[in-house]
Design a protein that fits this description.
By secondary structure, this protein is of the alpha+beta class. It folds into two domains: 214 residues, Rhomboid-like fold, CATH 1.20.1540; 69 residues, Dna Ligase, domain 1. Helices cover 53% and strands 12% of the residues. It has a four-stranded antiparallel β-sheet. A two-stranded antiparallel sheet has the order 1-2. A hairpin with a 7-residue loop joins strand 5 and strand 6.
Length: 307
């Protein structure tokens, strides 16, 4: 993903752990009861629109039909979730993840022939993970995703990698699922089975919608705040040059930068202020350090005294 998290992705790892735990417990119960636990699990934990309790809309996000179903979802959750959690903050990411999964379930139900009268159970984390992908596209559309490959044929092999823009990769994935969702609506399968493409599409759109609402709320909050003294870029850089302290061996690099979708760091405050003063760093860049709940404008560091 060409992204290094600045803080431990606690929520993403917890979600991966919870999904895995539910699968292992279900697997253990299945073999302990000779398969008799399976109907109970489908009835109580999976979402069956015509009969499930309200809590099944939550529990169905953590159940999987098999090992490879779980493995594939957890790989995608790790790749996209860690990045989105780091950029949004832990609390906000968890809320967006669960809301995206709920919307994904509703869209899937709406795309099935019987809608809320359907008696086919559905489950899996892919709807919520698709919301992560939608949020990722909004946050890092202009970055590249690296693909690695290897092969072994007879006695010879090779490996390598190539990069594709994130907007192209994620858009292709979404359009592919949108196509199969449309095929499912045109040629419905009354007995269900297979991949819930409608949940993928719904989750992806929910993720993008949540990011749009979040950015709108941020702009409204910024507009409601009392106006502060507005400095020109030249004044900010001059302040950075004037207040920049002499480098010290005791200064520890703790600041991470996010510039045009690319993360780098850590840096010291002196290094950041030096780059601002020399016009090497755009004022639209973002920064984060331990203890912050979200990324902030690097212009705030221009006249901050060194620790």
């Amino acid at each position: 993903m060409n992204y290094r998290t600045a803080r431990l992705p606690v929520v993403t790892f917890s979600l991966i752990g919870l999904n895995t735990l539910v699968y292992l417990v279900s697997w253990f119960c299945y073999f302990q009861s000779d398969g008799e636990s399976q109907p109970w699990i489908y009835h109580h934990l999976w979402l069956t629109p015509d009969s499930s309790a309200w809590y099944a809309y939550l529990t169905s996000m953590f159940v999987h039909a098999g090992f490879f179903h779980l493995l594939g979802n957890m790989i995608y959750l790790f790749l996209f979730g860690c990045c989105v959690e780091d950029l949004l903050g832990r609390d906000r990411f968890l809320i967006f993840y669960l809301v995206g999964g709920f919307v994904a379930e509703l869209v899937f139900i709406a795309s099935t022939p019987l809608h809320f009268a359907s008696h086919i159970p559905m489950g899996g984390a892919s709807g919520a993970i698709s919301a992560c992908m939608g949020m990722y596209l909004c946050l890092r559309a202009n970055t590249d995703i690296t693909f690695k490959y290897f092969y072994f044929l007879f006695s010879r092999g090779d490996y390598g990698e190539w990069e594709i823009p994130a907007w192209m990769v994620v858009s292709f994935w979404f359009l592919k699922d949108l196509f199969w969702m449309a095929m499912g609506i045109i040629y419905p399968q009354p007995h269900g089975g297979g991949t819930a493409f409608g949940a993928h599409v719904g989750g992806f759109l929910a993720g993008m919608g949540l990011m749009a609402l979040f950015r709108l709320g941020e702009r409204q909050r910024a507009a409601a705040e009392p106006p502060a003294e507005i400095l020109s870029p030249e004044e900010i850089r001059a302040a950075a040059a004037l207040n920049r302290p002499a480098p010290t061996e005791l200064e520890i690099p703790t600041i991470y930068l996010h510039v045009d979708g690319v993360q780098s760091g850590p840096f010291t405050l002196t290094q950041i202020q030096s780059r601002l003063a020399q016009n090497e760093l755009s004022l639209e860049s973002l920064y984060w350090s331990e203890g912050m709940s979200r990324w902030e404008s690097v212009a705030d560091l221009a006249d901050r005294p060194a620790p």
